[in-house]
Amino acid sequence: MSVVIKKVVVFGATGNTGLATVEAAIKKGKVFVKAFNCRNTLITASKLARSISNSNSKGFVIENLSGDRKGIITLGLCRPETKNALGKQVIASLFEVLDHIKYDQDARVLVIHSLVKGVFCAGADLKERAAMPEAEVGPFVGKIRQSITNLHDLPIPTIAAIDGHALGGGLEMALACDMRVCSSTAKMGLVETKLAIIPGGGGTQRLPRIVGPAIAKELIFTARIIDGKEAFKIGLANHVVEQNSDGNSAYNRALELAEEILTHGPIAIRMAKMAINKGLDVDLNSGLTFEQAGYAQVIGTKDRIEGYEVTAFVRDKAKLGIVAPQKVIQGDVLNKEDVNKAVEDQDGVIIVLGTRNDLSPTTMMSDGTKNILEAMKKNNVKRVTCCISSFLFWEREKVPKPYIPITEDHDRMLQTLKECDREWVAVLPPHIAEEPAKGNYEIKNEAPVGRVISKYDLANILVDCLTSEQHIGHYVGIGYPQ
Q: Which of 104, 172, 304, 478 counts the most CB atoms within 10 A of its CB?
């Protein structure tokens, strides 16, 4: 079960962790998504290809991305010895993979790309097909056609990232995707008529629906190969980008497009895709019926995303820098009127109070926490997450002496949370590192986990705990598996 949080205030928003938390709230609230670059480290296609054995029998590598890209699945074609040609084993495995993705409720967007530099997919494995008995050729082509149809029928958006050659069945696979992103140096064509055959994976049907019948006929009749710029010009590609030295510029642009899709309601996206696909095959009135049916599926759901309205509570507005919450309140957590003004009309609260490296004895953080909780009760705000030192997991005599006064105030913060009647989660991070989010962190109730956490993963956890249930009323340890 989750709660609906539309408005959230972050107390202590100008420290390193506080700024990251404001950014996380903005991103997860789907507000100003374009304003910040994703912190996750990208593994370039060429580097990843080198780390994968060429004997990969399935012919592709599947990745479920994490962090801000959670929900994006990438399917990397990886048969360098055949230029990613579609053979029997690849097609058989593709059936299984697409069936799994179809029923994966966490899947939001699929990006198909190549892990072999300079090629997307060369089409059917002609060497394998030449060795087949004549009786097997028809069923084999039928399986290719059906696998590409299964790709077309996936309920989630699909994007083909074409960084190299996409010929024959390779282009037909890309045509079955909802969108295509290509590099300027990519080469595309349905070249089957050169072999005295015709496209057999849906190319004669999908290409005319995308570029129009006249252009499609010209491309198929002439077996012409076009580059990325021409593909964009005729509407075959949604985007064209200049190729980079790693040979993966289309893949990077496809991930950006997938991130943009992630900012919107997943059920709404599925229903929109259903209405468009089904509507293309019928008359307008029938198509409107599909639209009406899809709309009825989403109107009553909590999937509709309106975005967090993020308020930052700070002492000094200038220290927010380029971070752009929707509202900024300048005040002091020790001033009850300031605090009440910030909490008023909010749905959730995140507390990231600090002393800016001042380790002297203090009650500022615990007193500020008391004021916040009091204001929450007054304004009927139920949910709060709070960042507190992991030294509370240590025996007090083992805490380094300079940190004992601060730890004592963190202890008072925790006791204040335990005694309140709000729905609280206390997050006790270990060493907070200035490094990209990894996403593979663990969270345990009342137990330490690891020795380090990225400040961006910490920020995500503080925001995520506002809408999850399993840690309510607990103090939690976080970190990466040892």
A: 172
